[in-house]
Amino acid sequence: xxxxxxxxxxxxxxxxxxxxxxxxxxxxxxxxxxxxxxxxxxxxxxxxxxxxxxxxxxxxxxxxxxxxxxxxxxxxxxxxxxxxxxxxxxxxxxxxxxxxxxxxxxxxxxxxxxxxxxxxxxxxxxxxxxxxxxxxxxxxxxxxxxxxxxxxxxxxxxxxxxxxxxxxxxxxxxxxxxxxxxxxxxxxxxxxxxxxxxxxxxxxxxxxxxxxxxxxxxxxxxxxxxxxxxxxxxxxxxxxxxxxxxxxxxxxxxxxxxxxxxxxxxxxxxxxxxxxxxxxxxxxxxxxxxxxxxxxxxxxxxxxxxxxxxxxxxxxxxxxxxxxxxxxxxxxxxxxxxxxxxxxxxxxxxxxxxxxxxxxxxxxxxxxxxxxxxxxxxxxxxxxxxxxxxxxxxxxxxxxxxxxxxxxxxxxxxxxxxxxxxxxxxxxx
Length: 429
Hints:
This protein is mostly helical and about 425 residues long. It has helices spanning about 10-15, 15-35, 40-50, 55-65, 70-80, 95-130, 150-175, 190-200, 215-245, 270-295, 305-330, 340-345, 355-365, 370-385, 390-395, 395-400, 405-410, 420-429, and strands spanning about 135-140, 145-150, 175-180, 205, 250, 335. The protein has 3 domains: about 10-85, Fumarase/aspartase (N-terminal domain) (Fumarase C, Chain B, domain 1, Orthogonal Bundle); about 95-190 and about 210-250 and about 270-335, Fumarase C, Chain A, domain 2 (Up-down Bundle); about 350-410, Ribonucleotide Reductase Protein R1, domain 1 (Orthogonal Bundle), CATH 1.10.40.30.
């Protein structure tokens, strides 16, 4: 069973209490700015701040009658503030508050995810450095290709996560916008100057133009970025699952003391964490699709975006954070079998070195077609006779004419495939 994936920080951000506190932060910022601009006496603002209270139970009680959460929130404040409550929400529309507050929540959630993403990068970087010279067989189309470095896998993933960090920073920046522009975004009942000052006070930018809402391309970008991050994690988890297969057994996710793999087969060590990551990434991608569908709304707005956003934004952020944290744990405790890697490198009896032999023949002046035919026919012969490719080649007349026995043997040195490893690492680290 999957463990609870919400962290304390994210659980707090998406709680009803925190949401209503954010709503009040926005309402209060508007009141304070209006006071600074001389529209509301300062003593009234202080009285509002002193008296304003709300409770979740009372909000829910009123909402059960009004079927409108913002009105329920405002009526709760009105009960505690009294006559001066008329200054609260004056000239505003619901989504001046809701969208600006949501931006505060999404910005904060994004920064928590960013911190976890940076932690994963550190683990990938460490693994890349540790396994820089660890030789393993590369696979294309699921078939042995040629030797490569295990460290390059981690380096590749590290670089991808750096790109994800750039994307997330951009998404956080683009969601960190508020709007205080009224029911149709035309500032009919409130000045743009108030919007500018309120957003600045809240640590947000202001939308240069809006309707009743902030435009949902901002939220879609944010959700799509979370989907990209989750999918990158799935990519890594899927490779771990692949390399943990019984026929390969090169790496495996941690298997804890007392852990059980199967109710029926006691020997099993299943890659359940990586499978969870792969499955949950599908959910986050689905949320990104819902975010895209929220972009086109009727006129200055409709409410079709509201219901899905109450699910997809809290869930996408908490799931992405969970995926990052679980993957980091997998990579920190990853079991690496160099013995299995060497066994798999040797499994095809030298066939993974065919590419180098091909290139060496071409360097000697052979046409590619002729060189390819020599290596391919020799490879097929070695495979059918269960012999090492080197043994076939040393008995090939054309090869013996062009190369010494020592030169042919050197073509099968796996360290050749690490020749430029330092150059690649210098590009990234």
